[in-house]
Each structure stands twice: as C-alpha cells, then as structure tokens.
Amino acid sequence: MRGSGVSEQLLTIGIDIGGTNLRAAVADDNGQVLDVEQLPTPPSSEALEMAVVAVVDKLRARHEGVAAVGLAVAGFVDESQQMVRFAPHLPWRETPVKRVMSRALELPVILEHDANSAAWGEHEFGAARDAKNWVLLALGTGIGGAIMMNGEIYRGAFGVAPEFGHLTVVPNGRSCPCGKRGCLERYCSGSALPLTAQDLIARGQFPHSRLAQDFGKCPEEISGRAVVRMAREGDELAQAVIKDMGTWLGRGLAMIQDVLDPELIVVAGGVAVDADLLLDYAQNVMGKTIVGAGSRPVARVAVAELGSQAGMIGVAKLARTLLPEQ
C-alpha cells in the first residue's frame, strides 16, 4: 500500500502539461488541492512520459486513495479524447496518450485539452459557476481557449475548437511554433513579451531602460516574468511592452465577442496572475473595437478564480468520471 495517510474518499490527480512546466495536483471531489508537484516540461516524448509517471508516483507515495489521473494537454486532442494529434509546444504528434499513460501509470486516465480543463474547473468551482454561454481565454506560454454552451464544452467537429491563439492577426508577422506566421499568441502571451521588448529595442525606443540594458547583456535570459516584474518597478520599456500586450488582448477579446457573443469571458493562465496590469486597458480596447461599439451588450470580463490551478482542478474533476460510484 502506498503512502502513510488515511483517505476517506477516492482522490484524483490532475496534471497540467504546458509548454514550460508540468504541474500535478492531488484533488478531492470538492476541488480542494491537497498537494502539488511541478517540474519543467521535458522536450522529448519519452522524457515527458517518464516525467508524468514520476510526479504521479511522488504524489501517490504521499496520498492513499488516488484512483484516476487527468491529463490536461496544451495541444490538439482528438474528438474521442484518446490521442494528442499536435501540440505546438510539446513533443507529442499523433500519439495515443491515453493508452500509453494508462499502461504506464496502471490507473484510469482521462485526456483533455488544457483550456477545456481550466474551463471545467471554473465552471464547477470558479468564476463561471453561474454562466451558461461563456468563453475561457488562457494566457500562458501560448494562448488556449475554451467555449462552453449551456454547460457543455464545445469541441467542434474534430475536437480542436477553439484555437484563438492561432488566428492570424499580423500577415507575415512573427513566426509561430504552429507553423504559421503572425498568430495572436506571438503578440499576446508570456512568450510574446520578450519578443515585443526586442522589437521596441530594435526601433531605438527606451535605450536607457534597465530592461534594454539587460537585453544587451544576455537576451536569452529575459523571460516574460522578468518583463512583468520590471514593469511593476516602473521600467518604461517594460511598461510599453505590457501596454502592447494589453492592446492585443483587447483586440482578441473583441474578436471573441464579435464571433460568439458570450455573456462572460474568463481570462486564465499564468499571465492572468498579472491581470491588474492588463485587463483595464484591454477592456477599454475591446469596448472600442467590437462591432457596434456603444450600442450593444458586451461580455463581462473576469479573472479566473482558480488562478494557475484551474487546469489541474478541472481535469482532476473530470477524472472522477472514471471512478466507480462511491
């Protein structure tokens, strides 16, 4: 028997596999996170599968009663939720992840898109508890999205809807790992912040900022988190980068409003932690950009209440559908 604790109910593990980090949480039926493990996302399929096994083993060693695992993946999950077809920031290509990981873990496994998982978490326990028709926009290394209609996830005909982050907003713009150019996530995500800083520096703007000087010394060490930190410290270049991202976020919100007309848009993901720097400005841009501005209802924009744990909590809750009735 694993672990030393006593469990009064079956537990599940939710694993959020993003382009930068792999995070796993043990959760109960009420969405309460009992324990967390995190490590960098490995670059190869074999290493990634071994990492999933390793974090599950660590958590099972500390908690009895783990009976199923949910995998929230930043990539295209097929309509049967068996396979990862493509993931711009992950090594899986046409990989039967559910079968592979079920065998490796010797546990039932459910596979879901990471943004759908976060949406389910917010629907069950967070900012969208009372919403019927709403959209989740997840800002992290890239951009994820989810649409919920009348309490059900909308997947599209082939399971990959929606891909807000890969809408082309700048023809022949920045190259994207998806293979296209000018995708929204190349201008509005954590990984976009250093790119925007580089562009502004190349134009000769704010040459005396500390961020510009740090880029000159070691550009490969500048992260989105560093840009946010410097913006909060008053660095002019960093603040200009954040304003640029807020503009693109506002345009993205306007596109969502024009196409889907939701009652609520929930902004989630790692970048949402810094929503106070972005959302007021982005909502102002959104309000001016939508069709019929000033003459129509506009979705309420809210920050995910579950924060960066939304995906883990949501997919852990989904994994409970694999359990026998208790």
Helices and strands, with pairings:
Layout: E1 11-17, E2 21-27, E3 33-40, H1 45-62, E4 66-73, E5 76-77, E6 84-86, E7 93-95, H2 97-105, E8 109-113, H3 114-125, E9 133-139, E10 143-149, E11 152-154, H4 192-202, H5 210-217, H6 224-232, H7 236-260, E12 264-268, H8 275-289, E13 300-303, H9 310-319
Parallel strand pairs: 1-4, 4-8, 9-12, 12-13
Antiparallel strand pairs: 1-2, 2-3, 5-6, 6-7, 9-10, 10-11
Helix pairs in contact: 1-2, 3-9, 4-7, 6-7, 7-8
- Stretches where pLDDT falls below 50 for ≥5 residues? 1-7
**Average pLDDT value?**
90
Percentage of residues in strands: 15-25%
| Known CATH architecture of the largest domain | 2-Layer Sandwich
CATH superfamily label of the largest domain: ATPase, nucleotide binding domain
Largest sheet: 5 strands, mixed
Tell me which oligomeric state these chains represent.
Answer: single chain
Count of DSSP-assigned helices: 9
Rg on CA atoms, Å: 20 Å
Provide the helix percentage.
Answer: 25-40%
**Quantity of strands, as a count:** 13
Distance between the termini: 20 Å
Number of separate domains: 2
Secondary-structure content class: alpha/beta
CATH class type of the largest domain: Alpha Beta
Shape: globular
Helix and strand string, N-terminal first?
EEEHEEEEHEHEEEHHHHEHEH
What would the CATH topology of the largest domain be?
Nucleotidyltransferase, domain 5
Q: How are strands sequenced across the largest beta sheet?
A: 3-2-1-4-8
